[in-house]
Specification:
It is built from 7 helices and 12 strands. It is of the alpha/beta class. A hairpin with a 3-residue loop joins strand 2 and strand 3.
Length: 260
């Protein structure tokens, strides 16, 4: 009688799924399915959420009506049909807008948060221009007050658009002054860009010219700051023609009528 041999098959890996683990897996699967179904339901039932309000925030000198016109969002359309990215792209066409964030808020609001370009200086070239901290030059809006801004002279808009290097130097000085001693700006009439492209300070009350050179601006502006803190300096400035701080840790003062 022939002898049969038993065939050996490879054993499959056995998974030890205890009731607790099985329940957790099923619960997570159901939860994921529920969330996905809910999102799909909301998207397909957009008629439940219609645009009822379009709100603009963050404005100080731009008009909300202009931003709304650029956004082009119509009330009564499905909220989920509104593209925040497309709205942001259109609003950024306004050069006075530096950044924008658009959100859809249930049940029916579109929120447009605008960040305007803020001027740090005023440029004189037949008409007034504002300059922001990145060197963008724009006409001053009628709704914006620039009375207290530092004035930039010595270069035309056309020259600066061709080469912004002198403008960046002025902006660097303004940033350093705001860091070293913001009150020093009260003594500065304007930042004058010389023919060599390097700025000088023109002081109030007499128009004294401050020569800063091309380096060590932190140290030199600090020296000027201390000089301007002298008692009765406002009266003395009227008699000063030129102040030179390009020498090492020294201030050379030239008076309109040399003393002694």
């Amino acid at each position: 009688m022939a002898r049969r041999t038993r065939k050996h098959y490879p054993r499959l890996m056995e998974l030890d799924l205890t009731p607790g683990i099985t329940f957790t897996v099923l619960l997570l699967a159901l939860l994921g399915w529920g969330i996905a179904s809910g999102v799909q339901y909301l998207k397909h039932r957009t008629q439940l959420f219609m645009v009822k309000e379009v709100r603009v925030t963050g404005l100080s000198y731009l008009s909300a009506s202009r931003i709304l016109e650029l956004a082009g969002v119509q009330k009564g359309v499905p909220l989920f049909s509104v593209s925040p990215e497309e709205i942001a792209r259109r609003v950024l066409e306004n050069k006075y807008v530096r950044a924008v964030n658009v959100r859809r808020i249930l049940p029916g609001t579109v929120l447009i948060a605008v960040r305007e370009r803020q001027p740090v200086a005023y440029l004189v070239d037949r008409v007034g221009y504002m300059v922001d901290d990145t060197g963008i030059i724009l006409r001053v809006p009628r709704t914006l007050k620039v009375d207290e801004l530092p004035i930039i002279t010595g270069a035309t808009v056309a020259q600066l658009l061709k080469d912004r290097t002198p403008l960046y130097r002025v902006l660097q000085l303004i940033a350093i002054i705001q860091e070293v001693d913001p009150l020093m700006l009260n003594f500065i009439s304007n930042f004058h860009i010389g023919k060599d492209g390097w700025p000088e300070l023109i002081l109030v009350d007499g128009g004294a010219r401050v020569v800063l050179g091309k380096e060590q601006f932190y140290q030199r502006l600090y020296l000027i700051s201390q000089f301007l803190k002298q008692q009765g300096i406002e009266r003395k400035l009227r008699d000063i023609r030129r102040i030179d701080v390009t020498f090492d840790q020294r201030i050379i003062v030239e008076y309109k009528t040399q003393k002694g």
